[in-house]
Amino acid sequence: MAANTATAPQDGKANKAVLAILAKLLGISVSQLEITHGQTARDKRVRVLV
Fold first, then answer.
1. Helix boundaries (H) for the chain
2. Is the pTM here over 0.70, yes or no?
């Protein structure tokens, strides 16, 4: 799955934006998502917590 954001990658703002996009698409809360790999990289791995 690919998610694009125009948010600048400063202070984790882009990561938060990507999580918000995924949460909206999946119909879940942002708190149910966790970036497990790629905090500072372009490619990320996200875990869904249920």
1. 13-26
2. yes
12 secondary structure, DSSP code? T
Q: Look-up: residue for tokens 């995924």?
A: 22
- Spell out, as residue ranges, where the chain has pLDDT lower than 50: none
Distance CA 26, CA 38 (A): 20
CB 5 within 8 A of CB 17: yes
**CA distances, 1 to each of 10, 11, 18, 22 (Å):** 23, 24, 11, 9
Task: Provide the pLDDT for residue 19.
Answer: 95
Domain boundaries, the chain: 13-48
pLDDT score at 26? 95
